Amino acid sequence: MAIARTGVAPKSWASRTWWTFSTACLIAVIGVLFSIFAFVMARGFPAIKLSLFTTSTHGTAGGLLNAIAGTFLLVVIGLAIVTLVGLGTAIWTVEFAPLWAKRVIRFMVDVLAGVPSIVVGYFLYVALVEEAGWGFSLVAGAIALAIFMLPYVVRAADVAFSNVPRTVREGAVALGARPAMVIFSIDFPWALPGILTGLLVATGIGLGETAPLIYTAGWSNYLPTLAPTHSPVGYLTYVVWTYISQPFEASHQLAYAAAALLMIFIFATNLLARSFVEYRTNRSR
Amino acid sequence: MASMDIRVGDTARAVSPAALQRSGSQTILAVLTGLAALASFAIIFLMLFFLIAYAYPAIRFNGIEFFTSGIWNIGNQYGSGTMTRNGFSAQPGASFGALVFIFGTLLTGALTMVVAVPLSLMVALSLVYTVPKRLRPIANALVELMAGVPSVVYGLWGMVVLVPWIGEKLAPWVTAHLGFVPFLGGSAGSGNGLAASVFILSLMVIPIMVATTRDVMLAQSNSLFEASMALGSTSWQAMTRAVLPSVRSGVVASVLLAFGRALGETMAVLMVCGAAINSYPENIFSPVNTIAAVIVSQLESALTDASGMAQRSLAELACALFVITLIINVVARGIMRGADRREGRAA
């Protein structure tokens, strides 16, 4: 909003004070947030050593290999599940659903986005870990992450598919393309940047989750076994949470290193997601 | 599911190729994607079903005491016999009153809103009006990146930086000099507690509220601002009395969503709240506890309960949190949709 300033003189004193105040609030908030970022990086960066990537946690110290491998596995399997379910949901809502069903599904997805992570965690603990008897396991953890990522992926894919120009689709139909072909060779390439952005944002969410994993993936000091069930998995956020409460300096170092690694991974995925958004807006110009 | 009628109102796909042609492959695709679309229903339904079914013995055993008592005690593990109520039994001396946690959840959530809502509005106003155009993308990116910081990282900072500062500097000063104000006097505590939780939660919800408020304000047409300026108001009055009220429902919805988020936040609160059990906060520096935090912190102790009633009572807590956040979210989405329809945007 760039507007010619025409305030009447006696009033604009108050106006200027308020604007100064609001700018001060902005600077204060960004300042505090930036100081958190700087603090974690300043403590965590020096703690990142090569040995973190080659050894696993043991007792109160060690490396982060098991946690990095576990986080990676959980996120990748979670992404695989959410890609199938999320893109399926988006295709159905955009292509097949009658209007009322579209509304209902979008509403349910929005509601799902608001469910607290610990509720998802406890639900899966009851349903999968206890009732299904899977124990703390890789698949239970990945499903927890997938439930968490689902709303972000569905919303992004929904918007991306809806924005495919109708004329292009109709052109394809006029040339004799079958519906499945329209979806796979017109919709998908066209919507790809939007879908990838959604998946990257979901990756960032998955990397940073803790609460649902405590109840589903458990924790392990050993490398993930790749067994789908009955084998707990370690992950980075758990290290941050528990090792900072230990009374040993080596444990603190590990927690800071894990936090710094998480921030680096998450910021990298977010920047990548932003660059896809820019690529898309540049192309459409 | 494959049956499809073309609706005039459905402008996004008035002529869908899928509707024009019907073939075997299309039906298969419709069924497969339709199954995927059922997932979000199934998850919410199964979540309610499993949590309530699992918590049922606890709901019967605890009765109304769950909401009226603040005593959480899993009972004597080594005691002889069990205690039975309404046909369900727990360890002797057990009592699962959740009032401390429910009160703590609502209190931290409400205080967070008191701090974060005015701040977010100020930040969003500044972001759309006073930040120079060149700096705007940077400021926007910073706010959005901060929304992606994991809650354990906020918790880490809270434990190492914020809590010692509150415990050693802020709380002793405030209780000594401002102790005459209600809820500011009394014990300064360790730094872990209500103030630290509210501070951290505010930092976590501000980026979310700022992003939404900024977007709805930017989506509003400029003519409102200009008309208000032409009538002689200052730019501040034009923004806060013309533009902001016109996006009221969007702002209210984002506040509600942030409230829901604050109520359900687990890790960061767990790390700084002081884990109060069986005690209500005396001032703003007292330890508190929230439903989400207690579900994590009480897991280990609950697993030692041979009767299983402690675990089931945690499930009852999860149900309570689920219902509270569900209501808030449904209301927020309803307000958003209502506003969209009134203002003629597609629902």
Unreliable stretches of chain A, pLDDT < 50, 5 or more residues?
1-10
CATH architecture of chain A: Orthogonal Bundle
What characterizes the major β-sheet of chain A?
A: 2 strands, antiparallel
Percent of residues in helices of chain A comes to over 70%
CATH fold-level topology of chain A: MetI-like fold
What's the Cα radius of gyration of chain A?
A: 23 Å
DSSP helical segment count of chain B: 14
The assigned structural class of chain B equals mainly alpha
- Give helix and strand order of chain A, one letter per element, not per position: HEEHHHHHHHHH
The oligomerization state is heterodimer
* Total of domains of chain A: 1
Pair with the biggest interface: A-B, 106 and 113 residues
- Largest sheet geometry of chain B: 2 strands, antiparallel
The gyration radius over C-alpha positions of chain B equals 25 Å
Indicate the percent of residues in helices of chain B. Answer: 55-70%
User: How many β-strand stretches of chain B?
Assistant: 4
First and last CA, distance of chain B = 22 Å
Let me know the average pLDDT of chain A. 86
Going across the biggest sheet of chain A, name each strand in turn.
1-2
What is the CA–CA distance across the termini of chain A?
A: 22 Å
> Which class best fits the helix and strand makeup of chain A?
mainly alpha
